[in-house]
Amino acid sequence: MPLQIIRQDITKVACDAIVNSTNPSMIGAGGADAAIHEAAGPKLNAACKKIGTCPVGEARITKGYQLPCRYVIHTVGPIWQDGEHGEPDILAACYRNSLLLAKKHRAKSVAVPLIGVNVLGVPRKDAIRIAVNEIGSFLMEQDLLVYLVIFGKEEFGISSRLFPDIKSYIDDNYADLHRDSDETRTMRIQSHRFMEAAAAAPAQDVPDYAPTASYSMSRDDTLSFIMEQIDESFSQMVLRKIDEKGMTDTECYKKANLDRKLFSKLRSNKEYKPSKPTAIALAIGLELSLDETRDMLMKAGYALSHSSKFDLIVEYFIRNGNYNIFEINEALFAFDQSLLGS
């Protein structure tokens, strides 16, 4: 199951378990820890006292009591000095041990905060990187829905500071005056590719429909490729790409941050129509080139546009060969865009 980044008060997230960043005594001293104790009621504090202590880097579990969750998983992050005293490894262990404990108690959904950002002095950029990497690695092996809960934009960081290269890419390529629909963009790109295919192929072989061939296609392959692809649906193209990449279905939908049930719809329905974020997520999961991504999007009736910040951010990551969908979603969230996957 996928990782979702949401803005919410963690005490209001309805899920199986929430993670509480606490101190070794588990007494709800301040910040979100105190808010969780207050929302859960006095029984939570009594349960924590009964457990006793929680060592740094480890996790303990209690019931959720009056919270909209079954469990509260308490974990203790490191006091950040300079990042050179084992703090990153300890912080990663907090996420890993919390998720393992959730899995042990058969939780299917977990809400996780950025551990230690305020009280423990963990730098935001380190907190985000460690959280996304550790949760992402866990989800590659386990089926779990994880919400990374951000209380406010200021907690996540300022996008222009965290992602200066992405911001520069958007500034350099954003075409605000050329806004149009996905359908219009698709027709324009199809027309452009048809003209390229026509120029490459012998005159008598030029078809009377617009191709979806890749820019790099040779003269001899143009017509045969078009004939092979003309009846291929989006679902069939995805399944073909999975086979070509030597991947399994599970590898694909996990790398695409998709739910297994959603992927099963694609597998069973030849005419499956994805949303644009889902289509792009599959392209990311398959690690397609930019041209291959455009071809896949066309199959679903979409296109990438320089009048969309969402599209430009995705394009930036593909051009740079970064197919870590959790890092892409991290950037999309920071720029107030929709996320990829389920």
Detail the topology: elements first, then pairings.
Elements: E1 3-7, E2 15-22, H1 31-40, H2 42-51, E3 59-63, E4 69-76, H3 87-104, E5 109-113, H4 124-139, E6 145-150, H5 153-156, H6 159-162, H7 164-173, H8 182-200, H9 219-229, H10 234-245, H11 249-255, H12 260-268, H13 276-285, H14 290-299, H15 309-319, H16 325-334
Parallel strand pairs: 1-6, 2-4, 2-5, 5-6
Antiparallel strand pairs: 3-4
Helix pairs in contact: 3-4, 7-15, 11-13, 13-14
Protein architecture, described:
With 342 residues, the chain is an alpha/beta fold. It is 50% helix and 11% strand. A six-stranded mixed β-sheet has the order 1-6-5-2-4-3, with helices on both faces. A hairpin with a 5-residue loop joins strand 3 (59-63) and strand 4. The longest helix is centred in the middle third of the chain and has 19 residues, at 182-200. It is globular, with a radius of gyration of 23 Å. It starts with a strand and ends in an 8-residue tail after the last helix.
